[in-house]
Design a protein that fits this description.
Layout (H helix, E strand, L loop, with lengths): L13 H6 L3 E8 L4 H13 L2 E7 L8 H7 L8 E4 L2 H10 L2 E6 L6 E2 L10 E7 L15 E4 L11 H17 L5
Parallel strand pairs: 1-2, 1-6, 2-3, 4-6, 4-7, 5-7
Helix pairs in contact: 2-3, 2-5
């Protein structure tokens, strides 16, 4: 066994990425403070051909040196928008026909492994502040809430790790029926 070389990976160019069919999933970051997490989520969105990212509140936006360190060029491929208020982003998404889902530990949350996305719908998943989670004023606006089941002491995942798990869940279900 040997590792593949970069030229063997079939990487898309920036233009090929931008013109590729995307998974109908958008990530919303509600007041995410860590620039490394923001950059990591851009890379995840690139890896799984997600539709884009909404950056809200105190979440920093590209170009930023610290975001670039972990994004490694994904800010050039992944579409993004900035909103001062997360509630404005949600209203925008609902006008565009998205089902808006909080990724949070909350009453009536659905375990991720039990949630089966409808591949004919567009989804937006919201990830909150690293300490405080999704803002209280945002929760009543969502259509559903998904929780990533955990069994350890902390019951807390890094936001970038959690975003990767959730994006993979949507990506694998979408790829079963579509070719990108």
């Amino acid at each position: 066994m040997r590792k593949l070389k970069n030229e063997e990976l079939g990487r898309k160019s920036v233009d090929e990425f931008k013109s590729s069919e995307k998974i109908p999933l958008l990530i919303v970051m509600d007041n995410v403070r860590s620039l490394n997490n923001i950059g990591s989520i851009f890379r995840t969105a690139d890896a799984f051909l997600l539709e884009g990212i909404y950056l809200c509140g105190i979440t920093a936006a590209p170009p930023h040196r610290e975001i670039h360190k972990t994004a490694l060029g994904a800010t050039d491929t992944v579409s993004w928008k900035y909103f001062k208020e997360t509630t404005d982003a949600i209203n925008d998404l609902k006008r565009e026909g998205y089902t808006v889902i909080a990724i949070e530990q909350a009453e009536q949350s659905i375990p991720l492994d039990k949630f089966i996305p409808d591949i004919n719908k567009k989804y937006a998943v919201i990830f909150g502040h690293e300490i405080n989670g999704i803002a209280d004023q945002v929760m009543p606006l969502v259509d559903a809430c998904i929780e990533v089941p955990q069994a350890g002491y902390k019951h807390s995942l890094n936001i970038a790790v959690c975003a990767g798990i959730v994006a993979w869940h949507f990506f694998t279900r979408y790829m079963r029926t579509h070719k990108t």
